[in-house]
Amino acid sequence: MKIGILGTRGIPNYYGGFEQFAEYFATYVANQNHEIFVYNSHKHPYKESNFKGVQIIHCYDPEYIIGTAGQYIYDLNCILDARKRNFDIILQLGYTSSSIWFGLHPKEAIVITNMDGLEWKRTKYSKPIRKLLLWAEKLAAQKSNALISDSIGIQSYIQKKYNLESEYIAYGAHVFTNPE
């Protein structure tokens, strides 16, 4: 099976939750003899093309120049690259800056999206941005082939708000054995 992981800054993990999950999951999958690719920001400190059997794809990420809006461009760059790779599965970690590009995802791939937190409820964002984030959430929920919730609360929310099932996967360092 050929799997691509999008939606992280990259591996090895230097940042946080999604990156930690991506590192553990990708190295586990690589050890199961699947082809696994993780997209890394070109600004990620790890510059090699392979990490413990995981193929690394470096994509341009202008966030360091233009701020948060750069995440949308980085995700677009990753999705456009994924169109050339013939992935069987795309695991999209988060949706806030990627789901607006959903029409550009490869049509042949199964897209599984981790539905993350309720970004649109965060008061740190202006009302127009919160509306955009709610729209992005709706797109991800409706357009993904399958959904993952990393908390029971998000799983319940997805069920109530969109009448959709999501698979609850409580990930973290304790869930996957890091095969070293």
Number of strands: 8
Structural class: alpha/beta
| Straight-line distance between termini | 21 Å
Major β-sheet strand ordering: 3-4-2-1-5-6-7-8
Q: Compute the CA-based radius of gyration.
A: 16 Å
Count of discrete alpha- or pi-helical segments spanning 4 or more residues: 5
Poorly predicted sequence stretches spanning 5 or more consecutive residues: none
Strand content: 15-25%
Shape: globular
Order of helices and strands: EHEEEHHEEHEHE
Largest beta sheet, briefly? 8 strands, mixed
What would the average pLDDT be, to the nearest integer? 92
Quaternary assembly: single chain
Helix % is 25-40%
List the helices and strands and how they pair.
Elements: E1 2-6, H1 17-31, E2 35-41, E3 50-51, E4 54-59, H2 63-66, H3 69-82, E5 89-93, E6 110-114, H4 127-143, E7 146-149, H5 152-162, E8 167-168
Please provide a written account of the structure:
- With 180 residues, the protein is an alpha/beta fold.
- It is built from five helices and eight strands; from the N terminus they run E-H-E-E-E-H-H-E-E-H-E-H-E.
- It has helices spanning 17-31, 63-66, 69-82, 127-143, 152-162; strands spanning 2-6, 35-41, 50-51, 54-59, 89-93, 110-114, 146-149, 167-168.
- The longest helix has 17 residues, at 127-143.
